[in-house]
């Protein structure tokens, strides 16, 4: 079973399928029901095995077809992804290399390369040269890890004396993963900060909320740098100043929007991020890496390490001082070196290509918004800050948006899902793919006429 004679056949088949997939233009379509899959795939796990050939056939004919391609130029729902060919193919090689990426001892080269990508991101954010962190599975894991470090830091400041309740400040635009981390993972409380008219957290709201609640137990303020629903960027300068006054950890969730740090046209929106105590961005969203990949950075990585290092007799060996053990900086131990696909692609193509690709998506979002303004039956919900555009069709209710969205997908045209803004239903596109053109987006608008 370990190294069968069929490995060459399998590898060449997989290579053929990978290339086929990278060249495929298959649009998102509707998903099969459980009943349909049960009929077509059925039971696959047997005592004797069904064989490589049959298993691979199930993949090509059924399983892979029952998945939506997030990298299709007209996959515009949620936050899509758009990994480069280089990152995807290299990811396959990383997997084939069976590397434990948790420690310097076992994967120093990988950690070294991953850390160069983290350094690029830290430089974009203006974090000090001592900043560092690791790659984790996604924004959810990144946010949880950062908040655990924040609470650890607050507890140290309090000389180990716990408050009655720990509290972290967010807004109603903050991603669900942050509320989940605070309430469900950490059993702490959420302090809602009122936002300005554009949905941004600013000094006034934050001060007001902190004064009303009292700063006791407030261990973090979570700023959003690009909300998933609308691309809103909080006033990071305001928040940084207020956090400094309150002596509270500033975490910046840039899971989606943090990529726009690399775009000169939007960089100033993020002013103040250089003061963050922790920062995350998901390369699997807008930085052209495959799932799953989140970059987590700490201003002072020692705090992250002290909060998260696991100790056990059998891993004493790897707890050497100096070198970087990626496992020490987040809620994980075993990990694949999941920053490597991005490293390979970024090293090969160069940072300028990344900036240019992000600028292209920003420009297309602006052109799309201009087209929405031109059409009398449509209204923009707000001028787009980044590459998410929300818009309304006159006279449509939630049911109309749902029917329209389902039909677009069933017809294999595009995947666009409705959302709500201030309780009102609307349509929304999120553009992270440089291959998405205005023509792709006009197909979506024309379908609303
Ligand atoms: C996507 C997203 C998250 C969650 O990231 P996952 O990678 O899906 O876990 C958190 N915050 C923001 C702003 C996001 O856009």
Describe, in plain words, how this protein is organized in 3D.
- This protein has 449 residues and is an alpha/beta fold.
- The protein has helices at residues 7-23, 34-40, 52-63, 85-96, 104-125, 139-157, 176-185, 203-213, 236-246, 283-286, 301-308, 340-349, 351-374, 398-410, 438-446; strands at residues 132-136, 167-170, 189-192, 218-224, 249-253, 278-281, 294-298, 378-380, 388-393, 418-421, 424-430.
- The strands form two sheets. Strands 1-7-6-5-4-2-3 form a seven-stranded mixed β-sheet, with helices on both faces. Strands 8-9-11-10 form a four-stranded antiparallel β-sheet.
- The radius of gyration is 23 Å and the shape is globular.
- Pyridoxal-5'-phosphate binds next to helix 6.
- Order of strands, main sheet, comes to 1-7-6-5-4-2-3
**Main beta sheet, described?**
7 strands, mixed
Separation of the first and last Cα atoms: 57 Å
Could you report the average pLDDT, rounded to the nearest whole number? 96
Helix content: 40-55%
Secondary-structure element order, N to C: HHHHHEHEHEHEHEEHEHHHEEHEEH
Strand elements, count: 11
* Structure classification: alpha/beta
% residues in beta strands: 5-15%
Bound molecules: pyridoxal-5'-phosphate
Radius of gyration from CA coordinates? 23 Å
Low-confidence stretches: none
Overall outline:
globular
Tell me the number of helical segments per DSSP (H or I, 4 or more residues long).
15
């Amino acid at each position: 079973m370990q190294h069968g004679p069929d490995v060459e056949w399998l590898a060449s088949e997989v290579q053929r399928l990978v290339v086929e997939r990278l060249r495929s233009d298959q649009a998102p379509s509707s998903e099969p029901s459980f009943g349909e899959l049960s009929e077509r795939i059925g039971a696959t796990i047997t005592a004797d095995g069904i064989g490589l050939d049959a298993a691979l056939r199930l993949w090509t004919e059924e399983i892979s077809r029952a998945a939506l391609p997030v990298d299709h130029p007209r996959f515009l729902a949620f936050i899509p992804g758009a990994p480069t060919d280089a990152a995807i193919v290299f990811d396959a090689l990383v997997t084939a290399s069976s590397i434990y990426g948790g420690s310097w001892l076992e994967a120093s080269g990988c950690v070294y390369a991953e850390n160069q990508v983290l350094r690029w991101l830290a430089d974009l954010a203006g974090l000090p040269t001592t900043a560092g962190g690791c790659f984790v599975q996604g924004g959810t894991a990144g946010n949880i890890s950062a908040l655990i470090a924040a609470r650890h830091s607050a507890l140290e400041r309090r000389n180990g004396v716990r408050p009655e309740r720990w509290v972290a400040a967010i807004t109603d635009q903050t991603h669900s993963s942050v509320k989940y981390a605070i309430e469900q993972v950490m059993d702490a409380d959420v302090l809602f900060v009122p936002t300005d008219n554009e949905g941004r957290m600013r000094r006034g709201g934050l001060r007001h909320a902190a004064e009303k609640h009292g700063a006791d137990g407030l261990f973090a303020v979570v700023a959003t740098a690009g909300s998933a629903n609308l691309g809103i960027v909080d006033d990071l300068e305001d928040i940084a100043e207020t956090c400094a006054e309150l002596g509270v950890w500033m975490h910046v969730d840039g899971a989606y929007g943090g990529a726009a740090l690399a775009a000169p046209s939007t960089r100033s929106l993020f002013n103040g991020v250089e003061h963050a105590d922790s920062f995350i961005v998901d390369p699997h969203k807008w930085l052209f890496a495959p799932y799953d990949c989140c970059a987590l950075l700490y201003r002072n990585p020692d705090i992250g390490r002290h909060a998260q290092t696991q100790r056990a007799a059998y891993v004493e060996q790897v707890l050497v001082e100096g070198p970087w053990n990626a496992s020490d900086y987040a809620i994980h131990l075993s990990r694949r070196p999941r920053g490597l696909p991005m490293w390979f692609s970024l090293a090969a193509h160069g940072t300028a290509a990344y900036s240019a690709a992000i600028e292209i998506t920003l420009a297309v979002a602006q052109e799309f918004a201009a087209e929405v303004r031109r059409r009398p039956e449509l209204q923009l919900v707000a001028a787009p800050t980044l590459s998410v555009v929300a818009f309304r069709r006159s006279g449509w209710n939630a049911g109309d948006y749902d029917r329209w969205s389902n039909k677009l997908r069933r017809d294999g045209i595009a995947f666009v899902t409705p959302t709500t803004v201030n309780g009102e239903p609307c349509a929304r596109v999120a553009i992270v793919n440089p291959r998405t053109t205005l023509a792709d987006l006009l197909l979506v608008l024309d379908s609303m006429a």
